[in-house]
Each structure stands twice: as structure tokens, then as C-alpha cells.
Predict the structure.
Amino acid sequence: MKKYDLIVIGGGAGLFVAEAAINVGLKCAIIEEYKLGGTCLTRGCIPTKIMVATADLIREAERANRVGLSFEKPVISWKRISDRLWGQINLSEKVADKLNSLDNVDYYNGTGSFIDEKTLKILLKDNEEVIIESETIVIASGVRTFIPNIEGLLGSDFITSETFFSDKYPDKPWESMVILGAGAIGAEFTHIFSSLGTKVSLVEMQDRILPLEEESISDLAKTVFESKGINVYTGYKAVKVSEEGGIKAVTLESVKDGSVIEVKGHALFISSGMKSNTDKLNIENSGVLTDERGYVITDKYLKTNKDHIYALGDINGKFQFRHKANYEAEIIINNVINKNENIRTASYDSVPWAIFTYPQIAHAGKTEREIREIHDEYYVGIKKYSQVAAGIALGYEREEYDEGFVKVIVSKENKLLGVHIAGPYASVLIQPFVYLMNSKASCIREKDETCFTELGIICPDLGSYNTVQEAMVIHPSLGELTAWAFNKLELKTK
């Protein structure tokens, strides 16, 4: 049995922890079931954004007449798109080669499971078993698509985001497809394939698509989708799947009244949520506690109930984004690997995210619905793209069906509580607000090394929008769109 200073389960953001450990001379083991790089590199954000870039250009060309241009229908090279996509995914092989060339790290391509709190068994791809142990373990094994219990589904040839970027990758875009689940993944694949000419039917059991977003953003996204010929079904659950002649038929039942309809497609894509991978780890053997959904419970230091076991990324169930996982990896590196005296803690008050659909969507902080539950009074400001010169230059006019907007929500004390954007460059426009919101958690070190964490007393403007209002904004730019939203603030009450 091999002994290590550190075992990392999962080759996504966990790689950052392993790299830091290697750099300080620790002997490490990395266990990865699939490919190194995690979901983001191999079957998530990076390959999908390569496809999104193509889809965005197609959609922008379709609306070019608004600014005085017209284009012929684009000629799509699926091979070129695929080559670019797989070129990125296959970078995982270079990462593996690099790890295998190092002396103080062992890379195990297989499935690891706990024997006890310090010992793991690894079933390698060639079915060989290896037993390893360590005094420090980081769990970063992620999640996988949740497969709902639908009659006939398991006997059908369905697709998930994992299998799409594997053996189910198509030779060309499908003629038609049904997507079950209208969260971020479902919405992005809807955007991608509908732009490529696939007839898409998007199904969501809740009463609106993108249910974690503002209601007004969900409504805008649905309107734009339907304008592109996408069939959107909200408030329906799939109850049966059948297949004949290569066509998948999905029976949908209304959540509201039980009525039944049927949708069909050449492909059936499941994006109905995620499932924790702790069931593959035999986590109970480690003594590590999980919640009712199977996610590892961690404290503010990313530590589990076992002092030597930490967890980061999707496996802890908190905001399942790669940037959040990277942030957590930095905290573990600081506290556990480098053992810095300045101990860092995890804060999730201003976690941002973007959904790269059409329109593009970005989100930081809380929604108005969430804020209404904890604040009796607050202010909301909304600014539309057509209300600034840069938006007009992009071809947006008042009251158009696809007109995007910025929505800001602040407390009576001028603190930013939430920012929500739908429209071009949303993922870029949101970022300055993330910095502003995060400043509430900042810490100043005086010469005597005293740390003041309650900076609201010392610097009352931290986390407020005062800084935005007092700054110059480039004109004409979309910076005016976000900055001037604060000029539209209106008082809201419960």
C-alpha cells in the first residue's frame, strides 16, 4: 500500500491543490475517473463556449438588418466546429503526460472509493486495484447528470452533457431534438442547436425556464427562444419515452391540470439537474457527513467533519461553477498546503454566474424574490439597452421583444444586494459589480497586523453603489447601461 502526503480525488479544480502541493515537495496522488481537467475542460464550459461562439455569430447575423446589413444564410462547417471543440478537450492528454513525467505525483485514471477515513481503493481502467492512504485528503470528485425516473427512458438512446462529449457526439447537428430541463445547460444547448438549424423542443417542469433567474429575465429568454422557432413547454413533466424509427417521442403531463401532450425529436437530451458523485466514493466508510442530497458538508474553511478531509467544487453542493471551485481551491492551498498564517475563509455572498444562451444572462447576489423575504424595504433600478447610446448603436429600440436590460437591487443603506443582466456582453458587464459586492468582505492589515473584518464601520461605502455614482463612465459605452441603472431606483416594499 502506497502512502502519500496528499490525496486529491478529482482532476478538475483539485488539480490546482495538487500542483501547489507538488511545488512545495509533497508526495501526491491524483485520482480521476474520466479525463483530467474536470467538467469544465472535458464536457462543460470550455467546449460548450466554443459552440456558443458559433451560435452567437449566427444570431447576430440574423439581426444585422437592424444596423443596415444583411447576410446570406451561413454555411456551417460542423467539422471545423468539432475540431476546435475536441482540440480543447484533448488538452487533458497533455495534462496527463505532464503529471506522469513528475517524480512526486502519481496519477490514477480510475474510480476511487473509501475503505476508511485515510485509505482508498482505486479501480483502474484496466480493472487493476490499488490501495493508497494519506493523512490529508481533498474530495473534488464533482457531480453527474441526474437521470429522472421516466417510463421507458433507460431503454432509450438518450444523451447527457457527459455522453454528448463522448460516444454520443453526433456526426452532424440533429434535425430535431427534445431537451428536458431548462436550466443553464438546457438553455445553452437550446441556443447552440437551434442556431445550427435543429428544431428544438425545450421542456421545463417548473412554471418558467431558467428558474434561478429573475422572473423578467426568464420571460425575456422564453420570448426570444420562441421568436427563433423553439418550442418551449413550461409546467410540464416528462412521464414516458418511446422510440420508433430513430425518433424519440416524449409524453408530457401538465403539472397544473394533468393534461397530456407529446413532443418528438431525433435526439433526446437530459439536463434535469445534477447528482452528487459521493455514491461512487463509499463516503460512509470515511465517516464524512453528507446532506440529504448526498453533497459533502463543509465548514467555512472547506473542512468536513473529519479534520484531515476537505471538499471543494461541485461535490459540496454550493454554487456549482468552475470559478467557485477555483476560488475554493485557492483557500485550501492557502490554509492547508502553504499553511499561511492569514487563514482564509469561504464566502458565497457575491458568487457571480453567466448563462451563455441568447440573450446572454448574468447574475450576482440575490434575486428580488429572495431579497423580499429578508428585507421589508429595498430599491430596484432597471435600465434597458435602448436607453443608452451604445445600446441604440447595437440596434435596440424601445419596447422591442428582445430588448435586454440591467436590474440592480440595493438596500436602504445603499448596499448592493443583487445585479441581473440580460443582453449582449452580460458576462462582462456583471464583473465590476462582483468586485464592488466582494469589497464588503475585504480586510485591511495595519502596521501592527491587526485585522479589521468589520470594515463597514471604518469604510461605510464598501459594498455600496456610491462608488459607481461618483465615477466617470465612458460615453458612449455599455458601461452607461449598468451605471445609470442606479438613477432609476424606486422603493419597493413587501
